[in-house]
Amino acid sequence: MRWVRSGARLRRSPARVAEPLRVSAPVGEPLTGLASGCASPLRGLAQRRAPVGSGSPLCGLPEPDLEGGMVEPRDPYPDPESAPAAGLPPRRSGPVTTPVTPPATLPAERGAIAAEAPPVPAPAYARVLSALLPGAGHLAMGAWVRGMLFLLSWGLLLGILYWARDRVAAIPRTGTLDDWVAVASLALALAFLWGYALYDLSGARARRAAARGDSQWSIAARHFRRNRPALAGLALVALLYTVALLAPLIAPYDPIAQNILESYQPPSAEHWFGTDRFGRDILSRVLFGARISLSIGFVATAISITVGTLLGAVAGYFGGKIDAALMRFTDMVLSFPRLILLLLVVALFSPSIPVIILVLGLTQWPSTTRIVRGDVLSLREREFIQAARALGLSRTRIILRHLIPNVLAPVIVSATLGIGNTIVFEAGLSFLGLGVQPPTPSWGNMVADGRDNLIGAWWVATFPGLAIVLTVLAFNLVGDGLRDALDPRLRT
């Protein structure tokens, strides 16, 4: 019984008897649904609603009888007297069963891509060979590329040690801070290369990666390794920094020692890159100039990336007046010509390496701020940020632990391209006389020294200029490779 409204009164109405489900079809077409034995539109619904192990009257499974027993499942064919329809398997008596194929053994899928089976460690003889000579174990196992890289790197470092054996022996008595840094860098490079060769043969890195699965960073690294120009740029960058650290050991002459009798000597066996007007060796000055230029580029870019990332994350996360104030300040910094601003600041203070680093670092951050702010504006509405807020995490923790790590990909690309840009600006300041002051060698002031005699002594400005070009090209190749590897839309 149920109550229904009749005018202004409520009256009782008998409950309606549920009508059976009626299935109809156009004339001339076979019935579908319940009349066909297993209704395709209702089959999924019945299977979803039916508990595991229970019968369903819609799909050829045992159904309860009104007397309490069980009735055999319905035949899937529409007419028992007719032959099997086209496309249906031959009729068979008994319940319809579906064969179950046991699942194949698959690797555990963890991360973005299923990890392969953990590799086995290298044989004992390969590890012994690698302990005696890094790279020999890889060559014995057939890994020619990795083996030759280890072997050539080890031979290069040992060659530098043999070349500078007399200087290394004299460092405990007359060595300067630069000499101690060079010796320590050489020892660390040898120890790292020897240890990494053994570690690579042990298979621990591959097993750890297989157990952990592929992350986005490992996928990006794999795509980066397929980019030949980017690998060439990375090798050139590593070579440049190695030369800069080991310059006191490999430079043939003192970069500031003068010898007027040998001024403007062309390239020869004694002076590979020639000499300048004061008789100073150009090769030695280029090697020591790499330390200045690469150090300024790296430190200044680190300052600009840090400032730009923090300001962009704060502006994007808080929004409102804070975002408006920071962005207007960023626009104001961008509105000034950078070169004019650099000249003004350097002219007000005494030109020195710390001043140049600060000026270059504090005028390069606006581009990074805009990039980070745009990414944070989209990330702050994601579910994991909302969950962090619901858990009561502080704003500082959300910015530092959840937002900034998720915007590191474009920041890394910006930093790599920014190092080359900073080196060019430092060379320009030194060329104008507002950068690194003589007699300290810098690529910029070396080019400035040779501009007055480009025809008669072309080597004075050519070799430092080539060093700037190769360095900037190497960083640009690495930056382009990182951009292609870290952006899923650009992966091929």
Features:
492 residues, mainly alpha, two-stranded antiparallel ribbon, 20 helices, 58% helix
Can you give a write-up of this model?
The protein is mainly α and 492 residues long. It has helices at residues 40-49, 124-132, 136-141, 144-163, 165-174, 177-202, 204-212, 216-225, 228-245, 247-250, 282-318, 320-335, 338-348, 353-361, 366-379, 383-390, 395-403, 408-431, 443-450, 459-486; strands spanning 2-6, 9-13, 63-64, 70-71. Helix 2 (124-132) packs antiparallel against helix 6, helix 9 packs across helix 20 (459-486) and helix 11 (282-318) runs parallel beside helix 14. It is flat.
H and E string: EEHEEHHHHHHHHHHHHHHHHHHH
Spatial strand arrangement across the major sheet: 1-2
Radius of gyration: 37 Å
Mind summarizing the main beta sheet? 2 strands, antiparallel
**Average pLDDT figure:** 77
Shape: flat
- Distinct helical segment count: 20
Measured as a percent range, the helix fraction is 55-70%
Give the number of DSSP strands. 4
**Uncertain stretches:** 15-89, 93-118
Task: Provide the fold topology.
Blueprint: E1 2-6, E2 9-13, H1 40-49, E3 63-64, E4 70-71, H2 124-132, H3 136-141, H4 144-163, H5 165-174, H6 177-202, H7 204-212, H8 216-225, H9 228-245, H10 247-250, H11 282-318, H12 320-335, H13 338-348, H14 353-361, H15 366-379, H16 383-390, H17 395-403, H18 408-431, H19 443-450, H20 459-486
Helix pairs in contact: 2-6, 4-6, 8-20, 9-11, 9-20, 11-12, 11-14, 11-15, 11-18, 11-20, 16-17, 18-19, 18-20, 19-20
